[in-house]
From TrEMBL:
Source lineage: Bacteria, Pseudomonadati, Pseudomonadota, Gammaproteobacteria, Pseudomonadales
Molecular function in Gene Ontology: asparaginase activity
Record bears the keyword Transmembrane: yes
Protein name (record): Asparaginase
Source species, domain of life: Bacteria
Segments traversing the membrane: 115-137
InterPro entries noted in UniProt: Asp/glu_Ase-like_sf (IPR036152), Asparaginase/glutaminase-like (IPR006034), L-asparaginase_N (IPR027474), L-asparaginase_N_sf (IPR037152)
Any Pfam family the entry gives: Asparaginase
Keywords: Membrane, Transmembrane, Transmembrane helix
Start and end residues of each L-asparaginase N-terminal domain: 2-150
PROSITE patterns: ASN_GLN_ASE_3
Entry annotated with the keyword Transmembrane helix: yes
Catalytic residues of the enzyme: T10 (o-isoaspartyl threonine intermediate)
Origin species: Marinobacter lipolyticus SM19
Amino acid sequence: MIQIVTTGGTIDKVYFDANSEFEVGESLLPELLSESNIHDGYQITGLMRKDSLEMDDADRELVRHTVASSDYDKILITHGTDTMAATAQALTAIKDKTIVLMGAMQPARMRRSDAVFNLGFAWAAVQLLPAGVYIAMNGEVFAAGAVRKNLKAQRFERT
């Protein structure tokens, strides 16, 4: 069984025409899981709906506490990409669980989003990797503490 923790981020952004901007909305994760033909074997915990740039140390502590106190040893976290590496680093003290963070560079509601691919890849990664904290994005797995987001290239890379 896998616990999925949602925190918001680009993957869940919705365009509000009246404001001419994107805001984090309700999670599309149940729909994305169904679209990926994943129908059971998980429990979803909606922890927060924030852009990761708005996350602070208290939010990361809430994520850490939620993961540490979970009865599950496999945890998948949806997260905004801008501070995903910082949250991954904050989770490294948890040693007995496989924790995989994932997100999307484009909102899941957009036609050319990487969300479904990233979800499927992270779903496999959380089941196959040994205990530790990882980021699974765009077909690559990165260990926490050895990864950063390259804003210019819009991808993650090893440090």
